[in-house]
Amino acid sequence: MKKYRVEYDRESCIGALTCIQEDPENWKLDEEDMRADLKESKKDASKQGYFIKEITEKELPIYLKAAQSCPVNVIHIIDLNTGEELI
Ligand code: SF4
Q1: Averaged over 62-85, what is the pLDDT?
Q2: Total of domains in the chain
Q3: Which domain range does residue 15 map to?
Q4: Model-level pTM?
């Protein structure tokens, strides 16, 4: 099955919250710093401020929707089979 990785540059999030509106199952507001948290993600050890999460092909559309809604493009999705950055 195809796998994808969400790469979220949390430090650059401006708290516009459209990702949460699009997909409240996977994104939630951190009321302390008013940025979005990607649920069940882990810190990316290689990139300061980034959080990553592996997702399946079935989950891809809903994550794409959230990523496309982000006004500052801080949510990226990589196809792990090809290395292509979808967004
Ligand atoms: S849409 Fe983008 S800027 Fe807005 S909360 Fe989500 S990640 Fe942050």
Answers
A1: 98
A2: 1
A3: 3-79
A4: 0.96
